[in-house]
Amino acid sequence: MGRNRFAAWNSLIPTQLFAWFSFLRQGPPGFGIPMSSPMPGLEHQLTSDHCQPTPSHPRRSHLWAPGIKQVLEYTMISPFLVLAIGTCLTNSLVPEKEKDPKYWRDQAQETLKYALELQKLNTNVAKNVIMFLGDGMGVSTVTATRILKGQLHHNPGEETRLEMDKFPFVALSKTYNTNAQVPDSAGTATAYLCGVKANEGTVGVSAATERSRCNTTQGNEVTSILRWAKDAGKSVGIVTTTRVNHATPSAAYAHSADRDWYSDNEMPPEALSQGCKDIAYQLVHNIRDIDVIMGGGRKYMYPKNKTDVEYEIDEKARGTRLDGLDLVNIWKSFKPRHKHSHFIWNRTELLTLDPHNVDYLLGLFEPGDMEYELNRNNVTDPSLSEMVVVAIQILRKNPKGFFLLVEGGRIDHGHHEGKAKQALHEAVEMDRAIGQAGSMTSLEDTLTVVTADHSHVFTFGGYTPRGNSIFGLAPMLSDTDKKPFTAILYGNGPGYKVVGGERENVSMVDYAHNNYQAQSAVPLRHETHGGEDVAVFSKGPMAHLLHGVHEQNYIPHVMAYAACIGANLDHCAPASSAGSLAAGPLLLPLALFPLSILF
């Protein structure tokens, strides 16, 4: 109905109005700059037949068509003018090739041809398994990331393909925790790494463990696919942009009644007296031969008040441990003398490593979480994709293969802070890492799974025209308070603002700033997770087993089945007398057998 009303208005708008709009868009002398000039804050610019965006006055304008922002800022814009602008944009942004039905028909036929090829199932043994976890990367975040990626390459964005979009199989994952309709990252991590659903706030334990109650832990520990892979002789690694003892990575190696027990400093006396160990301690002690560990979290590894190697005068960066342990030195002491183990803390050290001379790597690049990609220090902090490349170079030396967990962990943090631009750039960087991993591995022997633990109450809409900046305004005013609004909004969070008893006028703020907090419907200090299903993308051996709608804990069972690791090996064809597994296909009849029977 809204579209029809919009179209009706379109037919009434005189062409003279577009000329008047063009005049406004140009502004006073010196107001515009050539389209080829770079403009800070713009994700991209588009050219079109008669509505070409022009960068603005020194006061930054961040819609893809800066003219609209200028009109909003320098005139009292009317709904009629907004409709006129919208018409201009809508009519001019359709690429010429898309006006030809043949373009769409040929595209569909190519997609159909590719889909038919998928009938030839890849039933090989997965020598390698890589799991990419976008923390908080719900479907709306995936879509917005796709648009941003395209706009960063000066395209409209909607037609862009993420690396994960190229994966042939897609499923949906039900994310609820055993005691929570809307989950947290700890209970979900236990599900997709350990194959068992668990309570909110707990990691590496079953639902028999209650959060923060240490005495409910013993006997309820569950192991992860990282452990299963290590037990099978594979190399294993963890790469994250959060602390290495944060919720997602910790479920790979720890068993804790509380995800917040980063070091003993964060644990209650009762838990310490009952014998529970903090997560950093477990990182070093539980699975002593994890081959690669990279992320943040330095301060949890050192004695209380030990000065940080990078931030010497920052008290918040100092060590936190009450037990006086230096876990980095303990980590080193556990490594065989004939092996090459390296502890590093900056990007330069990482990029100068010779992977052929590295057996074990511990890289801790920040005292806490790593910096957002947009804020990253290019000298001291590596990107996620750089860490992934080095990790694979080290892990793939093992002839038995590897398991690698990669977390784009700060997507979640950006959303919690209402900073959509930070969140989406984190997701773009994770997609870049997915591409890097794909270029270094083979579909024939590497299963790659990309998914999220949960979503967020993040959305974008407002009938935005094709190519609208993902961080831009909707092409209309609110019909209630007569104010503009950004396409991106949150259901709740810190972006709720009232000025003079009314909703803040976003045209008066820099809504494309890296740290702009998008408006929300309900005021909260921290935005919350969403409860809807999340996508699971997969490619490689046995990827077709991830299909339809699944419980989240199904995911590691598929990965283990494909790699012939874990509790059940009956479906794996024996190879040599040495006991190694065949590199060829799994036994197909059993490969299609219900996994509920096999596990």
Automatic annotation (TrEMBL):
Cellular component GO terms, alphabetical: extracellular matrix; extracellular membrane-bounded organelle; mitochondrial intermembrane space; mitochondrial membrane; plasma membrane; side of membrane
Ranges in coiled-coil conformation: none
Binding-site residues, Zn(2+): D135, D412, H416, D453, H454, H529
Any Pfam family the entry gives: Alk_phosphatase
Chain ranges passing through the membrane: none
Cofactor binding notes: Binds 1 Mg(2+) ion.
Domain of life: Eukaryota
Essential cofactor(s): Mg(2+); Zn(2+); Ca(2+)
Residues annotated to bind Mg(2+): D135, H246, T248, E407
EC number per UniProt: 3.1.3.1
Gene Ontology terms: biological process: bone mineralization; calcium ion homeostasis; cellular homeostasis; developmental process involved in reproduction; endochondral ossification; futile creatine cycle; inhibition of non-skeletal tissue mineralization; phosphate ion homeostasis
A Gene Ontology molecular function term of the record: pyridoxal phosphatase activity
UniProt subcellular location: Cell membrane; Extracellular vesicle membrane; Mitochondrion intermembrane space; Mitochondrion membrane
Catalytic site positions: S185
Catalytic activity: N-phosphocreatine + H2O = creatine + phosphate; diphosphate + H2O = 2 phosphate + H(+); ATP + H2O = ADP + phosphate + H(+); AMP + H2O = adenosine + phosphate
Keywords, alphabetical: Biomineralization, Calcium, Cell membrane, Disulfide bond, Glycoprotein, GPI-anchor, Hydrolase, Lipoprotein, Magnesium, Membrane, Metal-binding, Phosphoprotein, Signal, Zinc
Quaternary organization: Homodimer.
Family: Belongs to the alkaline phosphatase family.
This protein's name: Alkaline phosphatase
Gene that this polypeptide is encoded by: ALPL
